[in-house]
Write a structure and sequence with these properties.
InterPro entries: NADH_UbQ_OxRdtase_su1/FPO, NADH_UbQ_OxRdtase_su1_CS. The protein is mainly alpha-helical. It has one domain. The protein is 62% helix and 3% strand. Strands 1-2 form a two-stranded antiparallel sheet.
Length: 451
């Protein structure tokens, strides 16, 4: 197998070995090569969705002592394809009172930005394809990382419009939850990128990968890496942060009223976002397509030819497995816990970390040794975090003490919940609402038709 890959790489890379891609190398490909890249990215994402569904079901099935899909194809590999055919052939039900324009547009607004985001992800270095030297990347921009944030914000519009146009309280609550969740966690995600921009000196994904030739940013900027891993789970709307769907409380959330291909587009967007967030984490913090340190130091050709595609795919699927592992291990958090983690923990910590990184970079640019300063500040930060956790634990333990018994209040007609006026006819059937007393006079009025 390695001999075949080596010979294939030698055949494609015939001629002078191209250098690593830079931002200036993009925009020079012929039209057929650009179209081929777009087609490859589209097919790759569709196949990744099918494989992610199969891997997720098999892994969670193994974690829960089940078999998982094993009927469609060998080892159930065609189960995702069978589900796609089933969704395409199901009846497309559109409720009567929905806003039809927004109801149809919402799934498109969720799926299309998910495809666009992957166009700036680098798969590998510069290679030769049919005599043309080109980078294994759709395109690149001076602000490429901000494109991903913009597309994720556009995808939220699809979720919110789906909840709004469905004219369902469950769908509307799911859409509102998604908008609040994305606002909370996208800010923290953007703040985790700032430290990467300061170290790389660019927002281009190509330049960021080139800047990690010696050391990955997951090591240099470990706090930013941790913040991003947490926020990408919030961005993906998956367990433990799948509050917009919340089957136990919102039936299905924002896509309760959807079926057939419209529901399939939401399903597709979720798994494409899963792959995009994993690929972005690989690009920003794990060196992108570059081989790990033991391999790159021993093998000089590990970062040339088509081999970097293998390293990129390994890192990508490790993160996808991480998502699946969390879904099979953690329960859904409460909504107040979700908001508290985003606004009271991640954002203040990210702002403080950015100030520290900026100060260290300025100190180092002036020619001073920043190693001792970083060690001292890291020790202080660890102590502060431990004290914070200890304080939260002590406060939670103190609040769990039983309160002194109090006299039970008088039960009201609504059982403690706000209810409409008691003369509303549809509340007369409730057990906790007192029924009107029926007297002989009222019976006579009813029988005579005067009441």
């Amino acid at each position: 197998m390695s001999h075949l890959l080596s010979s294939a790489g030698t055949a494609v890379l015939a001629g002078p070995a191209p250098s690593d891609p830079t931002l200036s190398t993009f925009g020079k490909d012929p039209w057929w090569l650009i179209g081929g890249k777009v087609l490859v990215i589209f097919v790759f994402l569709v196949l990744t969705v099918l494989m992610s569904m199969w891997v997720e079901r098999r892994v969670i099935g193994r974690m829960q002592l089940r078999v998982g899909p094993n009927r469609c194809g060998p080892f159930g590999l065609l189960q995702g394809l069978a589900d796609g055919v089933k969704l395409a052939l199901k009846e497309d039900i559109v409720p009567r009172n929905v806003d039809k324009v927004l109801f149809v547009l919402a799934p498109v607004m969720s799926a299309v930005p998910a495809f666009i985001s992957f166009s700036i992800i680098p798969f590998g270095p510069t290679v030769s394809i049919f005599g043309h030297h080109t980078a294994l990347q759709g395109t690149d921009l001076p602000v490429a990382v901000l494109l991903v944030l913009a597309m994720s914000s556009m995808g939220v519009y699809g979720i919110v419009l789906a909840g709004w146009s469905s004219m369902s309280p469950y769908s509307l609550l799911g859409g509102l939850r998604s908008s609040a969740q994305v606002i909370s966690y996208e800010i923290a995600m953007g703040l985790s990128f700032v430290a990467v921009f300061l170290f790389a000196g660019s927002m281009s994904t190509t330049e960021i990968v080139n800047a990690q030739a010696d050391t990955w940013y997951a090591i240099l900027l470990f706090p930013s890496f941790v913040v991003y891993v947490i926020t990408m789970m919030g961005e993906s709307n998956r367990i433990p942060f799948d509050l917009p769907e919340g089957e136990g409380e919102l039936v299905g959330g924002f896509h309760t009223e959807y079926s057939s291909l419209k529901f399939a587009m939401f399903f597709l967007a979720e798994y494409i976002n899963l792959a995009t967030l994993s690929a972005l984490c690989t690009t920003l913090f794990l060196g992108g397509w570059r081989a790990p340190a033991p391999i790159s130091t021993v093998w000089a050709g590990a970062n040339s030819g088509w081999w970097p595609v293998l390293w990129f795919m390994v890192k990508l699927w490790l993160f996808i497995f991480f998502f699946i592992w969390l879904r099979g291990s953690l329960p859904r958090v409460r909504y107040d816990q979700l908001m508290k983690l985003g606004w009271k923990v991640l954002m203040p910590f990210s702002i403080g970390w950015i100030l520290l990184v900026a100060a260290i970079r300025a100190w180092k640019n002036e020619g001073h040794d920043a190693g001792g300063v970083m060690a001292a500040v890291a020790g202080i930060a660890i102590v502060v975090i431990l004290l914070t956790f200890a304080w939260e634990f002590a406060r939670g333990k103190g609040s769990a003490e039983p309160e002194p018994a109090q006299a039970a209040p008088e039960p009201d007609a609504g059982g403690g919940f706000p209810v409409p006026p008691m003369d509303a006819p549809h509340y007369h059937g409730r057990r906790d609402v007192p029924r009107p007393r029926i007297t002989e006079t009222s019976r006579e009025e009813v029988s005579s038709g005067t009441h």
